[in-house]
Specification:
The structure is a homodimer.
Chain A lengths: L3 H8 L4 H7 L4 H23 L4 H7 L4 H9 L6 H10 L4 H7 L4
Helix pairs in contact in A: 3-6, 4-5
The structure holds a DNA duplex (30 and 30 nucleotides).
Chain lengths: ~100, ~100
DNA sequence: TCAGTCTATGTCGGAACTGACATATTCGCA
DNA sequence: TGCGAATATGTCAGTTCCGACATAGACTGA
């Protein structure tokens, strides 16, 4: 999956703004990554807000602690599906979710 | 994937409202399905609006016509990832996308 | 009617994603 | 400091999802 390029770089400490044109990511790819990033942040925020540990959240959504850690780290092996699932399971309201989808 | 239950039923002509408690889908599952459904509709709407054929859209996102058809049909084999990707590729604005995430 | 375009459906091999596990690291706090 | 809880990282086998292809059906205008 092409999107992973950016995520890998980000993980290596790059800033998103710079790398976009450097890698010549298409607008579509950039949008998708931004969206995911926004959701990822929302997951962590929502989880913390509800005072859930990663293990707690994992149980709620029948996943594992390591997967939650990867979600929050923006790991390339994590799909949008799973991020959204985590967001929902973390108790985020519909409003929260919608807000997370606000990318400009 | 558990979510498919509902999608299969829906495809068979069921109404979502009824089946939810019948199948005892958790709130989380229901939310996810509703979200996907909303996005799926947005894809078709956006594609038509821009007068793109399924083949056109497929080329834009380097997928295939049959995949687009499946996306729009809410096929169980289609992930949220792909739906969102299609939505973006169809030219939907950020505002459109956000609107599609408005589920209550 | 029929040719051309569009959409739907089924299938398949390969790619991507998953939960689970092991283990390392970080983080309070007594 | 050191201990327990929380989080991070790596790996892997099983599952899901993917594009591609074949083909069927639907729709439109001539």
């Amino acid at each position: 999956m092409k999107t992973n390029k950016l995520e890998r770089l980000k993980a290596a400490g790059w800033e998103v703004g710079n790398t976009e044109d450097f890698l010549q990511l298409s607008d579509e790819e950039a949008k998708l990554v931004a969206l995911k990033l926004s959701l990822v942040n929302a997951v962590k925020k929502s989880r913390i807000k509800r005072k859930l540990s990663q293990t707690d959240l994992a149980q709620r959504m029948k996943s594992s602690q390591s997967r939650i850690a990867k979600i929050e780290a923006g790991d390339p092996s994590v799909s949008l599906d799973l991020v959204v699932r985590a967001l929902i399971a973390s108790g985020a309201t519909t409003r929260d979710i919608q807000a997370a989808f606000t990318v400009q």
